Structures are given as structure tokens and as C-alpha cells.
Amino acid sequence: MCIFNRVSDGIELEWDEDKRQATLADRGLDFADVALIDWDAALTLEDTRRPYPETRYITVAPIRDRLCVVAWCWRGDVLRVISLRKANAREERKYG
């Protein structure tokens, strides 16, 4: 597993680089752009769909003029990006 770290607004980000590359290829979205989120304008909820080993969150927020959904968790003081995708119509209505 390859991990990349980036600091944005005092928050350190990390992710699996192989998963980032796959998301770039499949969806045209870059985990590094999570650093661009305006967290004050974001909608964040705890992800309780499954019994994950850590507390996971789902954030809906614009990234580069596109509404996106980010799954993430805290690893200590580091925000670990799990997945990133474009928001669907239901999520767009909920955010808007």
C-alpha cells in the first residue's frame, strides 16, 4: 500500500496512491483535490451503513465546480481519503 500525505489548511491528508490513480483513470477525480473543499460549506454525515473498524464520514461538497462525495476517516490527526466520486441526483438535491 502506497500512502501520500498532503497538508491543506492545517489538515494533513493521506490516501492509497494506487486507489487515487484508479479514481483518476475511472472518474477523472483526484484525491488531492479534497484539499480544495470548503469545509464550512460542506455537508458531512457519519457513515453508519456498515460496521466499519473506524468511524467513517461522507462529505458532499463542491470540488472544482463539481459536486462530489468523499468518504473519509480520521487516522489520528490525519484525514484519510477512502473514495471520491461525483454526487448523484439525490445527493445534489440533499446538498442544494
UniProtKB/TrEMBL annotation:
InterPro entries: BrnT_sf, BrnT_toxin
Pfam families linked: BrnT_toxin
Lineage top rank: taxon: Bacteria
Protein's name in the database: BrnT family toxin
Organism of provenance: Cereibacter azotoformans
